[in-house]
Design goal:
235 residues; four-stranded antiparallel beta sheet; 9 helices; 10 strands; globular; binds adenosine-5'-triphosphate
Length: 235
């Protein structure tokens, strides 16, 4: 079956130090794929190389039927890869609606933007309620929801999320998990980095565990438990 994203033998180095050592992974249509591993395993580095923010040393990245390895990060966004980086990064002094609109900056089909804003408000009613509020005054979970809605505004073919539950309270983690579930129902595939939130990992169709830059285990999310996660990180 043709995969939406196919990464083969990807290696990334900082100076002379290899942080990602030849990994291969795939994301199919409508799938959630999770990349897990302890601190420093290379998860963020792999995501940044896939979205074009870091150069690859070796490897091939095929997306939506073409090799995107030579494309700039902006071109990859245009091709349908949207990344929400670790730490949310909403524009704190702008309103929620202004933040959402900014997500459409790469789009040429301007006339469809209002209907997509409404789509985001249907997916995330709290954002509609607060649309005139400054984004910086929202809770961490709400800001994460906004960062995701903003990324969805470029109508991505694949959404990349880097540790969306990091630093959030259990209640806010639930909000983010519900958001991910809604996006799955919206049929947008997700490549997700997660470390500790086992419920997020269990949602994944496929899980790849990284250790010091290498994939050491592949599984389906439903098989992952608190105990197996601890073992994966300890060995
Ligand atoms: P975390 O969960 O802590 O974010 P991670 O799995 O995402 O960890 P990376 O951030 O990808 O791990 O880091 C992988 C390795 O690359 C680590 O050893 C890290 O110290 C190193 N590294 C990351 N960024 C840089 C950089 N800009 N310069 C040099 N080394 C870096």
């Amino acid at each position: 079956m043709n995969q939406l994203l196919e990464v083969s033998d990807l290696a990334v180095s900082y100076g002379g130090i290899r942080a990602v050592k030849g990994i291969s992974l795939a994301v199919g249509q409508s799938e959630i794929v999770s990349l897990i591993g302890s601190n420093g395993a290379g998860k963020t580095t792999a995501l940044r190389a896939i979205s074009g923010l870091l150069p690859c040393e070796t490897g091939q990245i095929r997306f939506d039927g073409r090799d995107i390895g030579g494309m700039s990060a902006d071109m990859r966004v245009g091709a349908g890869l949207a990344q929400v980086p670790e730490g949310r990064h909403v524009f704190a002094s702008l309103t929620i609606e202004e933040n959402i609109k900014l997500g459409a900056y790469v789009r040429t089909d301007r006339k469809d933007i209002p209907q997509d804003i409404e789509r985001m408000y249907t997916l995330f009613p709290i954002l509609k309620e607060r649309r005139k509020q400054q984004a910086g005054t929202m809770s961490g979970g709400e800001q994460q929801m906004l960062a995701i809605a903003r990324a969805m505004m470029c109508r991505p073919k694949l959404l990349i999320l880097d540790e969306p539950t990091m630093g959030l309270s259990p209640k806010m983690i639930e909000v983010v998990l519900a958001t991910i579930e809604k996006i799955r129902l919206d049929r947008t595939p997700i490549l997700l980095v997660e470390q500790n939130t086992v419920e997020a990992i269990q949602m994944a169709d496929h899980v790849y565990a990284l250790r010091v830059g290498t994939i050491v285990h592949k599984d389906v999310g439903a098989n992952i438990t608190e105990t197996s996660l601890k073992q994966l990180y300890m060995n």
